[in-house]
Each structure stands twice: as C-alpha cells, then as structure tokens.
Design brief:
This protein has seven helices and 28 strands. With 384 residues, it is of the alpha+beta class. Strands 1, 14, 17, 18, 19, 20, 21, 22, 24, 25, 26 and 28 form a twelve-stranded mixed beta sheet that branches. Pathway: Cofactor biosynthesis; molybdopterin biosynthesis.
Length: 384
C-alpha cells in the first residue's frame, strides 16, 4: 500500500521487510574471505596441532626422570634431547624442561625443577580436534578466523554472496567528476561517489551507471537494463517537481510503497519494487542523501548480506541546545570538542556538504521530541 509522508522508522521497517537475506552462495579462497559470512558450519579436517610439539625452548625428557628435582637437589639425566619451540616432541618423551631449569654438564642434563607429564608440551589436537565445528553458519570471518581455518589446511570456504547494487545518478546539470570545468548552474556528480564508497564498505558489490538526464524514458531504460541487480539506488529526481520522475516511474514499472518520509534532512525519499527488486530513490542534496544512506540503505544492505553490525555509538554531553523539527525524525550533525562534549553543527541545510566533513557523527532526535537541552546526554552515531 502506497504511503505518502510515512514516518521514517515505519518506512525503514517496511523496506527491511522486502530486503531479505540473500540465499546465493559462493566458494572463495580462504585468503579472500575477509568479512564474508559463512553459509555453512566450518568443521576441522585435522587435529591442530597435528603432533605433540614443544611449547618452548628446552630439553625433551621423560617426566619420571625429573621427579623430585629442585635447586637444592637436582636430578642428573643422561637421556635428553634439545628442543626448539614448535619442534616435534620425540616419541617416548613426554615433557620439556625449560632452559632456565636445566644445564648440560658433559653428557648429562642437570635438572633443577620437576616436570610433570606433558609439561610445556602442546598435545596433538589440543587447539582443535578433527571433526570439531570451529565456526557456525552465519559467522562473519575475521582475520584470526581465516588464520585458524588456513592452519587446518582448509583453503576454500563457502560464504553467502554479496548483494549486487546498482547506483543510477540522475540530473540534467550534473557533470562527471574531473570531466571538465563547470558551467554556471552545473555541479559535479558526487552523490554517486559517496553512495558507492559507503555501499561497498557496508558489504555489497556496486556498479554505477553513467549520469542519466532528467528524462523519463532514459530513467525507465536505466532501471530496466539493471534488473539483474539485487537492489537499485536512484539518486535525484525524488521530490514532486515537474522533472522529478523517479517515484512516478517506479509506480508505473512496479509498485511504489513510500514517497516522502518525515525525516530531516531527507524528506523527499521514495522506495518501491520493480520485478521483485527493491528500488530506493534518494534525494539529490548530498546531506539528505547521506542521511538516507545511513537510515535506509545501510540496514538494508546489511540484512541482505547476512551482516548485523551497527555503526559505532558513543555517549556525550551536548554543549548547547539542539533543536529539531517537531514530528520529524531529525539527524543532527555534531562535532566533538577537546573536552569530549559535542556541539551541534547543523539541523537543516541539506546541501551543505562541508557540514558533514566537519562533523564526527550525528544524533538521532525522535519525532516526539523537539531537540535536546544544553547539558543533556545524547547518543552520537559516528560517521564511518
């Protein structure tokens, strides 16, 4: 059901209901699986370590030969083998005497500390045993995880595929970055760059189309030719002006669920569905686009990619009154001061990109509040 000026949280919930975790699976070299999500349990195919090994430099001995050894009453052992950390403990020996507890005297070893069975020995399978489940389905693979998997000789892992996202920037006065000098009224297309960098960071594969002019047929064609993607993001042309075609085209090609959300900045937002693919329309003002990236795109990408991490949040005290628009969810840009408190930068000004560059994060002010008072504790969502 189409909703005009939906509440921001309700709109996000509606979007996430339609951005389900992907079921596609791919097999990767273990070394290439950083931050990917395991699509099945990963089980050990071997013991780790695969043999009894020395845990430190010293001497391999039979533990019974060291019984009662002490500084005032050393034991003298004729049967010993020098060891380095990581070496295979020779068969028939079950303990390692540390260098500081022993001294070679001719052909015998003087031992001044008793070593019980398997003292300073890493037993075979002590770390991981063959058949153990080391990671379960849904686990996000970190560097130490991949090191452990590799240590077990597992060189390929099965993971969930990344979502494929297409970004379609629109606008008749946009110019590719660095293509030429701008004429009056023109602007470089930076929203697509910002969106691509964030969406890649959040766990998706991204491709960006050429700039599509404000032409309904060209926009329709751009959507149709990219329906192989898991998500389409259209930037610009989302308001209610004469050339704001995106929401209308979306309703004609598929289904429009939301057009306009009570969000500051970022009100002219729309999303819907074309051929089973979620299509999200972001406003053309960069700060408004960034707000929507965090509020809508990030959680949608994470859900599709089987990821559940949230942006980092910290508590801080606000140094002066923080205002917001009643009835709207407001994302207020803030900067940290040297004393650890935060200062509001801007609430409005959706086109002032420098306000984001100067900000460390933003504070979400709920719809039912009109801001925060000086001295209030607030939660700051840090920009990634």
């Amino acid at each position: 059901m189409f909703k005009r000026f939906s509440g921001a949280i309700a709109a996000r919930r509606m979007l996430l209901e339609r951005c389900l975790p992907l079921k596609d699976i791919e097999e990767l070299n273990t070394s290439c699986a950083l931050d990917r999500v395991a699509s099945e349990d990963i089980r050990s195919s071997a013991d780790l370590p695969a043999f009894d090994r020395s845990a430190m430099d010293g001497y391999a001995v039979r533990s019974t030969d060291t019984k009662g050894a002490r500084p005032s009453g050393p034991r003298f052992i004729p049967d010993f083998i020098p060891q380095r950390t990581g070496m295979v403990v020779p068969e028939g020996y079950d303990a390692i005497v540390m260098l500081e507890d022993a001294r070679v005297r001719g052909e015998v070893l003087e031992v001044t500390a008793e070593a019980h069975a398997y003292k300073n020995v890493a037993r075979a399978g002590e770390d991981v045993m063959e058949g153990d489940t080391i990671f379960t389905e849904g686990h996000r693979l970190r560097p130490p995880d991949l090191a452990l998997i590799s240590a077990l000789g597992i060189d390929r892992v099965r993971v969930y595929a990344k979502p494929d996202v297409v970004i379609i920037p629109t606008g008749g006065k946009l110019v590719d970055i660095g293509a030429r000098r701008l004429e009056p009224g023109e602007a470089y297309e930076i929203n697509g760059l910002m969106a691509r960098l964030y969406i890649e960071k959040w766990g998706a594969n991204v491709r960006k189309t050429k700039i599509v002019p404000d032409d309904s047929e060209r926009i329709r064609e751009a959507i149709s030719s990219n329906l192989d993607a898991d998500m389409i993001v259209i930037i610009g042309g989302t308001s209610v002006g004469e050339k704001d075609y995106a929401p209308r085209i979306l309703s004609e090609m598929g289904e429009l669920y939301v057009h306009g959300v009570r969000l500051q900045p970022g009100k002219p937002t729309a999303f819907g569905d074309v051929a089973g693919r979620p299509v999200i329309c972001l406003p053309g003002y960069p700060v408004a686009a960034l707000s929507n990236l965090y509020l809508f795109i990030r959680p949608a990408i994470k859900r599709m990619a089987h990821l559940d991490d949230e942006p980092q949040r910290v508590q801080a005290r606000v140094v002066r009154k923080m205002t917001s628009k009643p009835g709207y969810l407001s994302l207020v840009r803030v900067a940290f001061r040297e004393d650890g408190q935060v200062e509001p930068i801007m609430v409005s000004g959706a086109g002032i990109l420098s306000s984001v560059a100067r900000a460390d994060g933003f504070v979400v002010v709920p719809e039912e509040l009109e801001g925060f008072e000086e001295g209030d504790m607030v939660e700051v969502v840090l920009y990634e």
